[in-house]
Amino acid sequence: MDKSAATTGPDGLDRTPWGNGNALMSAYYDSEWGVPVTSETGLFERLSLEAFQSGLSWSTILRKRPAFREAFAGFDPDAVAAFGDADVERLMTDAEIVRNRRKVDATITNARATLALREQEGLPALIWSFRPERTPVPLRLDQVPSTSEESVALSKELKRRGFAFVGPTTMFALMEAIGMVDTHLVGSHRRGVSGLWNPDGSRAASPVF
C-alpha cells in the first residue's frame, strides 16, 4: 500500500495519513482541520498555536490546547495584549504549555498587533485577502506544498504589520488549517469540506465574515 496516499482508518473512512495517526488527530482532522475560521479570536488562536507548533509535532500542541487556552485567557486578543512581565513569568513556569520565551513574547506581540489592525481592515480580512485563486489537488503527501506564493506574501505583510513568528511555512500551515487552501488528499472523506473550493481546485464560495 502507498502510505503517502489517502489511507483507510479503523472506522472505514479514508483520510490523509496523518489523520489516522491516533484518536486525537483523527478527531481534529474530522471536525476542525480545513473548516473555515473567520473570527478574530479564532484566527488569533490558530495563529498562536501554529507558532507554538514550530519545531514540534501538531499532536503535542493538540494535547496541550486546553492548557494553552487557560493560560492565554481563551486567546482573547484584548486580554493577551494586556499581559505584562508577571504574566510572562507565570507562563514560563507553566509546565502544561510549551515554555518557549520567544513564542510567548510573540503571542503577546501578536495580540497587540491584532488590536492595532482593528483601526484598519482587521485580522480576518487581512488574512483572508491572501486566499489564492486555486488550491492544490494532491493525490499523495509529496504533492502537498509546505509554502506558497500567497503564504510568503502573507508572512511578509503580517511582519510589516508588527506580527512575529509568522514565517511562510507557518502561514501555509495556517492556511491549510482554516480552509484557505484544501490539502486534504483526493480520496479523503474530508476533501472539499470547507465548501470554498471546486473539485478542480478553482474557487467556489467565499468565506462569510
UniProtKB/TrEMBL annotation:
Record's protein name: DNA-3-methyladenine glycosylase I
Keyword Metal-binding attached: yes
List of residues binding Zn(2+): 184
Origin species: Galactobacter caseinivorans
Top-rank taxon, per record: Bacteria
Keywords assigned by UniProt, alphabetized: Metal-binding, Zinc
GO molecular function: DNA-3-methyladenine glycosylase activity; metal ion binding
One example of a Gene Ontology biological process annotation: base-excision repair
